[in-house]
Amino acid sequence: MQKNMFFDYFGDDGFAAVTEEGKIVEFHLDSESSTEISGNIYKGRVVNVLEGMQAAFVSFGQEKNGYLYAGDIPAEAAGAAVQPMRLNVKAGEEVMVQVAKSPIGTKGARLSMCLSFVGKNVILLPRAQFCAVSRKITDESERERLLKQAEKLAEGEGGIVMRTNASEVKFSDLKEEVKYLRGLYAETLKAYERASVGEMIYRDADVHARLLRDFNLSEVDKIYIRDEKMYEKLESALRRTRSKGKLVRYTGEREMFEFFGLEEQIHRLMSARVPLENGAYLIFDRTEALTAIDVNTGRFTGESGLEDTVFTTNLLAAKEIARQVRLRNVGGIVVVDFIDMASEEHRAAVVEELKKHLQTDRSKCNVTAMTELGLVQFTRKKVKSDNVSMLTKKCPYCKGAGYLLSDSYMAFKVKCAIQKCFAEGYDNVIVELNAGLFGYIVAKRRFSESVKGDWRDKRVYMIPHKTYHEEYFTVRGDNNTVLTLPDTAKLLY
User: Fold this and answer.
1) N or C terminus of the chain: which is more exposed, having fewer CB within 10 Å?
2) What is the enclosing helix (H) or strand (E) of 452?
3) Domains in the chain, start-ordered, CATH in brackets?
4) pLDDT computed for residue 301 by the predictor
5) Residues above pLDDT 70, as percent of the chain
């Protein structure tokens, strides 16, 4: 399978994409205005402690205070004899905190005092007292070998987690990496002593460095880079590795993401509708609590019976759902409404297909069995906002609701405003409104009964505007005998 990476900058925004056979499977954006701060370490101050919730709120230089659970405070914070789940901080206390989960929506960042420094092959946990091996390494003998190496590397000073890449690395190289990470921790401790509350004292790698660090580059064919400075930086970083020859400096006249067809694929992320190759489609519906995905057969009718048609569609949907949640960076609870199937064997096969494709996801996913209603629920680890939120902003008119009021209801709102003016003693009313809404009111004769009845001794003038938003209008009363109106003003009926 052809797998490529694409790195670029636009101003201060960093873009990164991973493709498999030309289709994007991961897209990442580091925006100057984004709230993606996971991995960064700050000097904070405890603002208040909620004993009942076993949590504390910490001011750490961001717009919203972060929250710190008791389970994210190491025992050493208040002595080894203290129970691990006890809240060992007090209001006003200064603390060193790392962002475990960036702020999302109305929620502040989740913080931890259990620091971690992530390397290419190992993770240093300077305040932990355990060692572990990546769950992606399933061979028991290999896990046992790596765990013994981790214990040697730890030397009783903190904990070590062996990442997937560690299997292919010499022990001497792992030792050098741990030494480097311990140096980062030492520098962070010094920076903490000098810093004021709210200052960042350690920055995690940018999006491009994180991908190079977290990906197994032996599986990557080419790494395309447009920015010259970034190319030189990565070339220097990879100089002594076998991956150096995979770097490709893109110098084409067209924008790199547009040239390779990536921009169009990124733009399609904003659509709630995702077509499947057989004519069926998915519908994504995001809410604050979860993401719902609906599977529809669309124009696909199949060539055999209904059950086989549905089964085929659900299998395709399972594969595409795994790709889309990874691509859109959907996190939290996901509920999938598959098309109903009578066969229990088919139902189990669809769930297994979903699990199989979710296994390629670098974020941890847990899938439950299908219910009798055809619903499958799974969770995906959430550490930052999804890509749709990162690439869009709330509509200033609908406030993020995603809809406009109907012409019929807008006409009713205009009628209410006119009626209010007449009730206040005005004989003339001037309405300025969207030209399309005006055309609807006239064509449908929405106010004809009122004009013939309660308004028969009144006058209503309407001034249509092509530039007005569909939901914007103004209504004012006027009792002057002579009115000054533009030529576009129309006397209603």
Assistant:
1) N
2) helix 448-452
3) 3-34+205-264 (3.30.420.40), 42-202 (2.40.50.140), 271-391 (no CATH), 407-491 (3.40.1260.20)
4) 61
5) 95
